[in-house]
Amino acid sequence: MATRANQVIADDLFDSTARLLEVDDVKVEFRLRAGVVKAVDGVSYTLDRGETLAIVGESGSGKTVSAQAIMGIIDSPPGFITNGEARFRGVDLFSLPEAKRRKVRGDKIAMVFQDALTALNPVFSVGWQIGEMFRKHRGTSRADAKELAIELMERVRIPDARRRVNSYPHEFSGGMRQRVMIAMSLALDPDVLIADEPTTALDVTVQAQIMELLAELQQETGMGLILITHDLAVVAEVADRVAVMYAGKIVETGDIGPLYHQPSHPYTLGLMKSLARPDVKIGESLQAIVGSPPDLLHVPSGCSFHPRCPYAKPICVTDDPTLVEVAPGRKSACHFAEEILRGQ
Amino acid sequence: MTDDRKFPEIDPAITELEVEPVGKPASLWSDAWKELRTSPMFVVSALLILVFIVMAIAPSLFTSVDPEACNLRHSLELPSAEHWFGYDLQGCDYLARTVYGTRVSISIGVIVTVFAVLIALVLGSLAGYYGGIMDTIIARITDIWFAIPTILGGIVILSLLQRRGLWQVSLVLVLLGWPTMLRLLRSAVLSAKEQDYVDAARALGASDFRIIVRHILPNAIAPVIVYATITVGVVISAEAALSFLGVGLQLPAISWGLMISGAQTRILNSPHLLLFPGAFLSMTVFSFILMGDALRDALDPKLR
User: Fold this and answer.
1) Domain segments of chain B: what residues?
2) Which of A91, B139, B140, B268 has the fewest C-beta atoms lying within 10 Å of its C-beta?
3) How far is A322 from chain B (nearest CA, A)?
4) Residue A54's beta-bridge partner residues?
């Protein structure tokens, strides 16, 4: 029973009284021929049991890469983690040897990918793929693994699971496929689930179902959930806290309600104004954030948001603001955070 | 413009239900099989290959004559009602010799292909999956090796060997034949490893070995299967060519290449010496290449 022995070792490793997940000043860079891209530039956050953290940002803001760093699935080369720690129950994942790291993946921390069609292997049935989690990590027999797969498919509310267990990914609709992906990631009862844009590839009605499912499953299991998204509306109802990322940095973080109603960073403010909400008055147009996200090979000096910021002053061009607390539980990386917060 | 109309309440059970097409689960392979069963190209080639394989395993089913029971009195006799393929120079029954020659050709074709595929699977997945220095070394050696022409290389190596039996010829053809297969598999692995499900498998804790065996190879193997099928035919003709040139199998082995070689100076007077082994050889090669084409059509969804 080699697998069970390894299991015990992996459990002993972690201090169950320590914080679930602490990401501390993580930097990831991609060394490309064109130059060095600092995809993640000093990101820190924490996650507790039963908590949902939304990481919001545009494409290229580093939100996915920061999650991949925690999972240890960054292609290296060209990607390198150059700084920081990701402590899971007190143990830094970056310094774990690969064999132990692998035990953490899927077992302690699991991940749901954006597009379940491409994230599921087309040549195996979904039941086989879900069952593989048990066979591989727990040494479960084929027949038992299949029963467990059916159970999981029922838990993520796939109708008629017993019949559909032998179906292949392309035979499922987008929403059902994402449920399969979620079932797979939940197979081993992970303590942390990272969902990377889990609803982006789905249409709006199905998005809501998937978010609801994730929230329900979280309630059942008490896992910590990290939701990565570019869509503020998607996370509004399920997230506890939000971290807004821009050009590889967290520019604002705080509890979701206050942050939504009173942003303290111009970028968040811009995101909120660009969002179609019921309280936008008739005739009032949505405001887009001018310009486009920065080229990470040539990040602007000072505050990287300054070329697009309507509030930019000379200091923003020269000095990079640090993430500081501007209100209880709220941090912002803007020289004028307090003014923005007060709505001036 | 406020809108106070209320939508009727919808039963949540209905909204929850996404309608799925109901039917038997269909994998790539079962789809391919469905396609193959109805393809005349596949059916014809499969039947031909089946006949040749049975002939190779149990030649006595096709002829009751011993191919080595020869009588010089019958030397070079033309085909007749009793002896359909006539006799060769030594007075051996040509039908029996042609039938028994199948075994060598099929064996060499299969042995060479199996070993070339094995080499390609191991080295190709290592090079494609790990990349970097491993890939550079393997890929460059392959490229250099690839530049050696099969027949020319075969003549050079085989002419150095004293004894040239089935295994020696196979070994030389494997040595010269693996590069193409490896290049094919490497490129298939390169594209398969970029897929999200490989990252997903890694994120869920799969080891490198498991990722290669379970997630990459099953998705990269289709073009190799097609090429391997065609390779069986190509190798069979290469063996015949080498034997014809006198550097392949040696007498008293029975092989189509040797038979054609023996026919070359007697084509005008005894055309049957060339005709029958030549026809069998062509039919075998043809059926493997036809089968390869049928497999390609079935396994490559873009051609459907």
Assistant:
1) 84-303
2) B268
3) 32
4) A227, A242
Is A288 strand, coil or helix?
coil
User: Closest chain A residue to B204 measured between Cα atoms?
Assistant: A106
Pick the residue of A104, A113, A121, A216 with the most B CBs within 10 A to test the interface with B by mutation.
A121
The residue type at A21: L
**B-interface mutation test, from A64, A103, A134, A171, most B Cβ less than 10 A away:** A171
User: What is the C-alpha separation between B262 and B255, in angstroms, rounded?
Assistant: 11
The neighbour count for residue A146, using CB atoms within 10 Å, is 21
What's the half-sphere exposure (Cβ side, CA atoms, 13 Å) at B79? 11
Task: Sort out which chain B residues have CB atoms less than 8 A from A115's CB and list them.
Answer: 196
Domains of chain A (ranges plus CATH)?
A: 2-239 (3.40.50.300), 262-341 (no CATH)
Model-wide pTM > 0.80: no
Token digits of residue A205: 């009605």
Position A86: which residue type?
A
Measured between alpha carbons, how far is A334 from A302 in angstroms, rounded to an integer? Answer: 11
Cβ–Cβ below 8 Å for A73 and B203: yes
Burial B176-206 (b: 16+ CB within 10 A, else e): bbbbbbbbbbbbbbbebbebbbbbbbbbbbb
Count of beta carbons in the 10 Å neighbourhood of residue A143:
9
Alpha carbon of B63: minimum distance to chain A alpha carbons (Å): 45
Cβ–Cβ gap A120/B26 under 8 Å: no
Nearest CA in chain A to B132: A77
pLDDT tens string, chain B, 304 residues long: the values are 444 555 555 454 444 444 444 455 566 677 778 888 888 888 898 999 898 888 888 877 777 777 777 777 777 677 777 777 777 777 777 788 888 888 888 899 999 999 999 999 999 999 988 888 888 999 899 888 888 888 888 888 888 888 888 888 888 889 888 888 898 899 899 888 888 888 888 888 888 888 888 888 888 888 888 888 888 888 888 888 888 888 878 778 888 888 888 778 887 877 777 888 888 888 988 998 988 888 888 877 555 4
Pick the CATH number of B84-303 from 3.30.70.100, 3.40.50.300, 3.80.10.10, 1.10.3720.10: 1.10.3720.10
Neighboring chain B residues of A71 at a CB cutoff of 8 Å: 202-203
Instruction: Report whether A36 contacts A82 (CB < 8 A).
Output: no
